[in-house]
Amino acid sequence: MNRFESFLAQQFEDYMTYRRQLGYDTENLRWALKTVDRYLISQNADACDLTAAFFLSLQADLRTQNKTINRVLSYTRGFFEYLLRKEYCQHNPLKGDPLAARRTIYSVYLFSTTNRCAAWRRLPQAA
Question: How far, in whole angstroms, is CA 94 from its chain's centroid?
């Protein structure tokens, strides 16, 4: 079994143990966390570097399918939620959607069922 090597190695192992004790299979989790671990090492990152922008660059650098990237980010988001509960960190850099500020959300309102005329209204962004 390969060990984690980044500055978060002990926290990764603790999280794996925690999930295993809850009865979850940790094979996919280990793969996702190893992906993040290798990226932390390749970028020579420390705790100060763990920002939303850092994980956006991780997302951009992964050369794989979108669903795989989403899985890595989902597992990593859960890991940071664990660190928050353990009071190891003060915020989750993957909390929310960093691209949400660039998105426009539209909602459809039908004025009548006979006319089938629709109007689009811009909705405020969720915080």
Answer: 5
Look at residue 126 in the predicted model and tell me its pLDDT: 55
pTM of the predicted model as reported, rounded to 2 decimal places: 0.71
Which single residue is written with the structure tokens 């280990």? 30
**CATH number, domain at 75?**
1.10.150.130
Tally of domains within the chain: 1
Token match 């996919």: residue?
Answer: 28
Expressed as residue numbers, the domain containing 24 is 9-100
**CA 118, CA 6: separation in Å to the nearest integer?**
53
Tokens representing 66? 């979108």
φ, ψ for residue 126 (rounded to 5)?
Answer: -75, 140
